[in-house]
Amino acid sequence: MTTTSQVFQTLKPVLARNPDLVLMGRFLFLKPVRHMLKGIFIDRSSDKNEFVTIAEVNLILLNQGRWKNARSERLYGFYVEPRELSKLKSFPVIGESVVQHDNNHQSSVGRMPVTWDMRRAISDHNQNHERPVQRDDEVRMEVVPWDITKPASIDFMYEMIEEDVLPNLRKVSSFDDFEAFAASIGQADEFPFKISTFERMLIAAAEGHFDKAQELWNSIEQNPVYPAGRLLEILTAQSPTFHSALLAGGRASLAAIFH
Predict the structure, then answer these.
(1) Whether 54 contacts 73, CB under 8 Å
(2) For the chain, where are the alpha helices, taking DSSP H only?
C-alpha cells in the first residue's frame, strides 16, 4: 500500500501548478471551501505501488463528518481504441474532449485517453450489452493502474486530474450543480441520489424550499427505509429544533443549524 509521504511527493507538481489546491493527508481538495468540500481522494490499493483516485463532493451542511453527505466516484485510467469507440451510437463531446497523445507518451500511440464523460457513456452503453450474444458490441477499454514505479502512468494520472477531473469539480458551486454531479455517478452508486430522500430534503431546506423539504421529511417518516430513516433519526437527535424550524419556515434558525 502507498503511504501519505508518497502521495505528497507524487502530487507536488500538481500542487505547484494549481494554487487553489490543498493536500491534507490523502485528500487533495479545492479552495475556497464554503458549503461544499470538493476534491480527489488518493486511496491505497492492494498493490504497494498503486494509487486509487476517487473524485468526491461533500455537502457541508451539518456537523456529521466528512463522509456523511459525500458523493464520490472512482476514477481509473483508461485508453480506448478508436474502433472500439465507434460502437457508441452517439457521443457528441468526443470531438472536443479527446486529445490524441503525442509521441512522448509511447504507451498511448494509436489510442485515446478516456475522459470522465466518455467513461460514463461507455459504461451506460456496455450495461445494455451484457448478454453473451451482445458481447461483440461492448466497448472494450484498457485499464492503466496509477503505478508510482511507472512514470508514464503517473503522467497520465496528472493529465486526468488537471485536464479532466479538476475542471469538472470547479464547476460544482451550487446545490443544483451538486445534484447534477450526484445524479451522474450512475450504476456504481449503491444509493442513487434520485432516491436519496434525506439528501434531497436537506438541500431543499438549505435552499429555502420548505414545502418540498417537508414533503420529503414526511415521506421518510412514512417509509423509514435505510439509510434515509436512520439519517433522519440522527438529525433529530443532534438537532432537535430542525423540524420545528422547517415547519415554521425559520430561515435564520435553519441557517444557524446548517452552519
Answers:
(1) yes
(2) 4-17, 82-85, 94-97, 116-127, 151-160, 166-170, 175-184, 197-207, 210-222, 228-238, 242-248, 251-258
The Cα–Cα gap between 232 and 81 comes to 47
Note the pLDDT tens digit of each residue in 203-215: 999 999 999 999 9
Cβ-contact 53, 157 below 8 angstroms: yes
Type of residue at 203: I
Contacts of 174 (CB under 8 A, 6+ apart): none
Which pLDDT score is estimated for 97? 38
Closest CA relative to residue 214, chosen from 251, 253, 247: 247
3-class state of residue 53 by DSSP = strand
Which residues 6+ apart lie within 8 Å of 77 measured at CB?
113, 114, 143, 144, 145, 146, 153, 156, 157, 160
Q: What is the rounded CA–CA span in Å between residue 182 and residue 189? A: 9
pLDDT computed for residue 129 by the predictor: 60
For 73: left if phi > 0, alpha if psi spans -120 to 50, otherwise beta; the answer is: beta
Neighbours of 96 (CB within 10 A): 7
Q: Which amino acid is at 104?
A: N
Got the DSSP string for 99-142? ----TT-GGGTT-EEPPHHHHHHHHHHHHT--SGGGGGGS--EE
pLDDT at 167: 94
Low-confidence ranges of the chain (pLDDT < 70): 62-69, 89-110, 129-134, 186-190
